[in-house]
Amino acid sequence: MKKKNIFSLCIFLLFLTGCGAFSGSSNTIQAPEVHKGSEGLSIQFMQNAPPQSVYEETNFPLLLTLQNKGATDITEGWFTIGVEQSNMELRGEAVQSFSLLGRTASDNYGEQKIVELRGHTKKLPINTQRLESVLSVTACYAYSTDASADVCIDTDLYGLAKYEKACQMRNIAMSGGQGAPVGVSKVDIEIVPGEEQNTVIPQFTIYLENMGTGQTLVPEAVATACSSRSIKSEQYNIMKVEASLFEYELDCNPKLKEVLNDPTLQQGNEKAGYKKLMQKKGSVTCTLQEGISKARGTYTSPLMVHLEYGYADTISKRIEIKKK
Amino acid sequence: MQGRQPGETRPGLNFILFLAFLFLHLLDMTTFVRQGGSGFTYGTAIWVVLMPLLANMLLESHKEPGMVAWWKDYWKYAKWGLGSLLIPVLEAPVSFLLETLGVGFFSLEGIGAVTATIAVYFPLGLVPFVFGEHAQPFGWVLFRPFTNIRLLVGLYMIIMFFSLLFYTSDKIDNTMLIVNDFMRDKFGYDVSETTAERSQLPLFDFAWETAKATYEKGKTGVLSWVSRAPSAVSTGVQKLTGKALGDAYTGKVDEKAKKKIGVYLDDVKTTEKNFFTDKQTILYTHLRAETLDDPLNIRIACIAHAKAASYPASTIYPKSDFDVAQFEDESLDCIFNPGTLAAGAYQVNVSAEFNFTTLAYVKSYFIEKERLRAYRQEQMDPFAENGITEKKPMAIYSNGPLLVGLGLNREQPISLDRSLPEQRYTFGITLQNKWKDSGRVKEVQKIIIILPEGFTLDDSQPFNTQEVQCDAIPEEEGCEESNMNIYEITPEEGFDNEYTYRVYMKVNQQAYDQVLGTTPLVTHYFKAMVSYTFQLLEGKRIELFDPAQETTTATQERGSPVFTRYDANEITSTSVSIVWTTNMNTTGTVEYWNSRNPALVYQKEDTMLAMNHTTQITEGLSPDRIYLWRIIAKNEYERTTESGTKTFTTLPLPGQAPSTEGLG
Q1: Whole-structure pTM value
Q2: pLDDT tens track for B322-374
Q3: For residue B608, what is the enclosing H or E element?
């Protein structure tokens, strides 16, 4: 009897999965291929450059690959290479600026740049047979994310309409990123009554997530982040959010002054919202204040979200320096 | 008498079994006696064979007769035995953890394996007995309190007892050293002996002596540990965190360094067991020296110390001065010519005095203060954000006799506040004689500290310091005055195994950019170079005898036979009867030689295993001569004892007057 029940349950589960009841594919964001993934700038040391192990008082190659694997062009980027100066020195510019084009429909890889430098190991301290030294590269750049989705707007607040609705209003789950290290992970939709009786106001809660290994910061602090200069905590983990429903710009909150007490930074677009991420996550609320006439019924409209931020990421490598 | 029924358990037997295994396991755990060449250990035998076998025999009444039923029951317990073999797998991570804790908390390197064995292997192996189905009914009132949870508590008390015993030893560097020393003292046990030789050890005697010594050591050990606990905890925390607390700074040798640089002397050995004043007295040892950069000058001295005076060796072969550029591996002989030492006991010390330099460095991370605050407020890890994995860097020092610990007494990363006109830091250097068991730091000659660019010493210092140039440090160091500041500290006189220097550093505002560099977090190295003279010391007690003088002192190995009597009887002009008795069955060899010709030694063997021996000697005897003789007795375990040396004088031929030799 028990076996029979288990068998029936398996068959049922098979049916459920086969029917795609769990797929939810009709509600995911339809992003072009370019706007997929959670990578922005990829920084890598080339193989054996620097090598794992190197003798004292010798030169070694240091080759860095910078590749913009995201969907946004980098027009303002910096990288700085840190070496432990007691053990080695860098021959070449340790701090450099760069710009790299992002992925496009015709270039699925993004622009790549190879930085060629040389390092030189110093003499090991007396009676020291070996030593491990760390070499690091920090890259800081301004970046943005564009996400879009077709959302269902249902002006029939209380479900009184007798016509067949063109779509059903659902929250939108997103995963995998939109071609940038920071992306939209989910959008919740709510329709609230407007000030005027025949209007409704669509309200979107946009959930943001830093899916990369680095940190977000205000775009204006990009150059500072890649230096040893002072940087304030307010400037970290923050991003600007703009959203529109078809051609109508949404009003996003909170505003800059609510999250950042920095007079040097300007709100700019007054409808833009700013969000400070906590534990790499956060959400903003964007509304269409003008409202939508109830007469429009139920329809599908494109929601577009644009995020702007700076991004800082570091890679490092441990090198063994051996006595000759 | 009514027999037991199937399923009935014999009362109290599991407790007896527990005691038996406790005894066997402690024996197993604390000795290498059981170690076989194939890796099959006594412990394995216990858990796989003996335990199920005994459990089966003692606890189980067979429900069915016959071998098949017996095997079923045997297998039932064998599963526990096999299961317990998995425990060493558990032991590995625990061992690692305890070793880490041990190094830090109790400063006991190598304790991990023993403690893990005690803590994991032993109690878990006994769990089946404690909670097994046969642990339930106890008819024996006496043992009732020991069952189940009480038994476990008792077990852990034993564990604690043994742990503390090990923890309180100064010789913990080698886990088995205590046991080995003990066995050597009591039974003449030698770790270098073969398995076959070790298996001949008198286990019962060993167990009894072990129990007595354990009790005594444990009693004093626990008290001593309790009194030392607060400082041990403090030191442990300091060493665990790698931070300076109080006055001491710590460090570690680079574990991946392949060469064991420094100077090493082996134990001093003698060419003979007994020396005579009319012959050369020779002691030997082995010297190994290796250096990377600094040449070493080693001076060897051999001095025999008696109560009243000291006597240097007549010759040190091949030489007493060594200049080592890189590597030296030499056997050394200390030779005392005949007549140099009179009969009596001496402590011969072989010393190797050499100059040495130990270098230590510690890395430290620096970050702009506001940025560090931003990281912290944003709950970001400044190390992770900057690709740093070594968050609490500990000083690394080069191998050698001196531990050089360094530290900046600030939490890492160290912040630098650009708004302040200058920043001050304390740099600590602890010197500790790491080889204090085998030598002493005779003199600390020079302490050089090398600070990164931007760091200078403050004007007020607790020690005499002066800025020096590159020429103050060895050329091999690769000095660059442009990006380092070098200072010399005048060492305090009278170094007594440990000393801490604290110097005050500062960074001026003009140097902030230099110090912080161009990256969000920067790493700087602080170095110290300590030059000193070290004296290694190895000693050996010897005893010299006058060849004409009778000796009665027997040279006896521990656990070996003891002579209760040995005499020469029935002496004629060409024969003598040697009679001896020992406290156990032995065979014996009589060695004898003419006092005029000690090189020609005759031997007469008595191969019968007995306590009373009589041997007639005729070979090599001439009338009217003085002969020295001794007996070497050997028991069935190959343990030997030499008697003292005695003399007898053969009779002159009839009618012949005794010679002057015969008259003694």
Answers
A1: 0.61
A2: 888 878 888 889 999 888 888 888 889 999 999 888 889 999 999 999 999 99
A3: strand B601-617
Q: Is A96 on the interface with B (CB under 8 A)?
A: no
CA-CA distances (angstroms) from residue B228 to A298, B167, B234, B247?
Answer: 81, 11, 10, 18
Cis bond upstream, residue B6 (ω within 30): no
Cβ distance B490 to B503 under 8 Å?
Answer: no
Model confidence over B486-534: pLDDT tens digits? 999 988 888 888 888 989 999 999 999 989 998 999 999 999 999 999 9
CA distance B356 to chain A (A): 10
DSSP B517: T
Report d(CA A275, CA B139) in Å as an integer.
74
Cβ-based neighbour number of residue B295 at 10 Å: 11
Distance CA B236, CA B228 (A): 12
Where would I find the H helices in chain A? 2-18, 222-225, 256-259
Q: Does A227 touch chain B (CB under 8 A)?
A: yes
Domain annotation for chain B: domains and CATH numbers: 13-230 (no CATH), 262-354 (2.60.40), 357-533 (2.60.40), 547-663 (2.60.40.10)
Distance CA A198, CA B117 (A): 80
Q: Which of A83, A86, A260, A311 to mutate to test the interface with B (most CBs of B within 10 A)?
A: A86
- Give the residues across from B488 on adjacent strands: B448, B466
Beta carbons of B257 and B399 less than 8 angstroms apart:
yes
Looking at the domain A34-141+314-322, which fold is it? Immunoglobulin-like (2.60.40)
Are the C-beta atoms of B264 and B288 separated by less than 8 Å?
A: yes
User: Which tokens go with B190?
Assistant: 């030698």
Domain ranges across chain A: 34-141+314-322, 145-311
